[in-house]
Amino acid sequence: MADQVVRLPLSTDTPLDPPAEWARLRDRCPVAHAELPSGDAAVYLTRYDDVKALLSDPRFVRPTERDNAARIAPDGVGGAAATGSSALTLPDRGEPHRRWRRRVGKYFTAKRMTALRPGMTRLAEDLIDAMLAQGAPADLRASLGFPLPVYVICDLLGVPADDRDRFSHWSDTFLSVTRYTADEIRTAHEEFVAYMSGHVAAKRAEPSDDLLGTLITEGENESEGDDEGDGGGGLSDAELVATGMGLLVAGHETTANMIGKMVAMLLADRRRWERLLADPALVRSAVEESLRFDANLGFGLRRYVGEDIEIDGRTVPGGSTVVCSMPAANRDEQAFAGAADMDLARTPNPHLTFGAGPHSCLGQALARTELQVVLETLLTRVPTLRLAVPAPELRKTEGLLVGGLREVPVGW
Ligand code: HEM
What we know:
The chain is of the alpha+beta class. The protein has one domain (about 5-410): CATH 1.10.630.10. Helix content is about 50%, strand content about 10%. It contains 16 helices and 10 strands. The strands form 3 sheets. The chain has a 5-stranded mixed beta sheet. The protein has a 3-stranded antiparallel beta sheet with strand order 4-10-9. β6 and β7 (about 315) form a beta hairpin. About 40% of the residues are buried. Bound molecules: protoporphyrin IX containing FE (HEM).
């Protein structure tokens, strides 16, 4: 490893472009020494093959407080990931994690996503109509990006439409690291747990075909002897509450930000938007390319490496924390020809934006569907959509884990 230390997060001059440093690191220092905002040391990976191999290796786990891993920031900055109470912790490794993933993952099938599409489209249309009615300029992040994913998660959990705004508020409180006091965050947690506990009890009493209802029915069938052999029965009430929390935390801000960034990237060069208007069949590949091309994904995924390993011929000592930069890997020429160009028809597109391996994004089919629906709906409803400020004036959020734009001012 070279001696120079890379200070994370890397800075950029413009809001949508990648830091220049990535190309140099991939080329000359793919296994770099890095310093996290906490001051702790980590190893920083930027090549596609290295990032993919490390994330896919089940030996290496996502660090928790139990490991003596490098911290991201001194005061635990990191949104809800850092504020979750023990009652809301999901199993995060080993067989309990695999069991939870199998159960919840079963719900996210292609068939189910197709079934969710019309409802999502109506949500997107309503939000876009409200934005249009308010008049230009509008903030697309606040009008569409932020509310849509939380409404979708409410539908998934079977939460009635009247309670969506409360979910929106709770999620905002969990995710914000600066806007709310410790007391407000604690209150939001308590309210959320109380609400979800009541909700789970109601679902136990009355079967439904949303995600929670399905998990409950499957669990009950198993205790009646219809065991699938994964040795565990259904999820407990506490696990169901934690699942609701987990999906909200993992699926809200990430998708909200991606909606904003996708639209900003597509409008930043008007030819991209025009191409989609001329050929809407490109929506799917354009969504994938937006996911690949996004340079603001946060600084990367951490893995705790418990034993000595070799990466690119260099030894990474056991006890190291490795930070995998997916956005740097997504710009690797060795994996993507013309990686620096946004090619809306690119296929295949094996980007790493949803991670890889045992912890890869469980909600990726849902996220993809949301992004496709948003794009399709915007193209048909607001073909004249444009950025209301020059792209270089867009402002990035302060978040360390999930990168985004503070607002996406648009006109039409
Ligand atoms: C564009 C939007 C999204 C992006 C970029 C994204 C990205 C990611 C990434 C990179 C991971 C891996 C974390 C790690 O390995 O440490 C992850 C995990 C996860 N995501 Fe997403 N995600 C998105 C949307 C969603 C949605 C909509 C949901 C569900 C409602 C969701 C649920 C999850 C869950 C439950 C995990 C944890 C999986 C596990 O630990 O086994 N995500 N996501």
